[in-house]
Specification:
This is SNARE associated Golgi protein-like protein. Belongs to the DedA family. It is a multi-pass membrane protein. The chain is mainly alpha-helical and about 200 residues long. The protein is built from 10 helices and no strands. About 40% of the residues are buried.
Length: about 200
């Protein structure tokens, strides 16, 4: 996959970055943790402008969030869960993933869109409950954009600083993202248990 990403970015430049980040939102197995550090490394070589690379990544990500948002808005939770359980293995999404993201959105509301844009493994899925919950598209785009700028900027800067060791970013973020995701799930379970105890 790394070679494929490198080829697209090398041949298409900023358009390639935007396209890859768009696809990363549609198909979560494509890792932003590899795309944007590579863009930062390419900028460090003088082949791209770092601000342009970040802008391309942000635009691609935000546009890529819209199909999932509208899928949630028009298809609804039940149909999406059934579809995910049946076909989601091809893009590593299950009905449980949708439930998890919806619980997060129900608890944190619009803040979840901002926060989850910076959490690997949840970034893509948070668009679904935003659509299911009928969140207006303007605040959805605003919160998505702010969260995406922070995430994409961090990854790109890391690649710029690390140079040809940019792949270290993905290696370190992979276990960290699992820990963050586990902590979020545990936190959500604790909140649910406390609410039930209060009732």
């Amino acid at each position: 996959m790394t070679e494929w990403i490198v080829n697209i970015m090398t041949s298409l430049g900023y358009l390639g970055i935007g396209l890859l980040m768009f696809l990363e939102n549609l198909f979560p197995p494509i890792p932003s943790e590899l795309i944007m550090p590579l863009a930062g490394f390419t900028a460090a070589q003088g082949k791209l402008n770092i601000v342009g690379a970040i802008a391309a990544g942000v635009i691609g990500t935000v546009i890529g969030a819209l199909p999932w948002y509208y899928a949630g808005k028009f298809l609804g939770e039940e149909r999406l869960r059934g579809w995910a359980d049946k076909y989601g293995k091809w893009i590593t999404i299950t009905g449980k993933d949708i439930d998890r993201s919806k619980h997060w959105f129900d608890k944190h509301g619009v803040k979840a869109v901002l926060l989850c844009r910076m959490v690997p493994g949840v970034r893509t899925l948070i668009s679904l409950p935003a659509g299911i919950g009928d969140m207006h598209v303007v605040p959805f785009l605003i919160y998505s954009t702010v969260g995406t700028i922070l995430w994409v900027g961090l990854l790109t800067a890391a690649g710029y600083i690390l140079g040809d060791h940019y792949q270290i970013v993905e290696e370190y973020l992979a276990p960290v993202s699992k820990i963050v995701l586990a902590a979020l799930v545990i936190g959500l379970i604790i909140v649910i248990i406390r609410r039930r105890q209060r009732r």
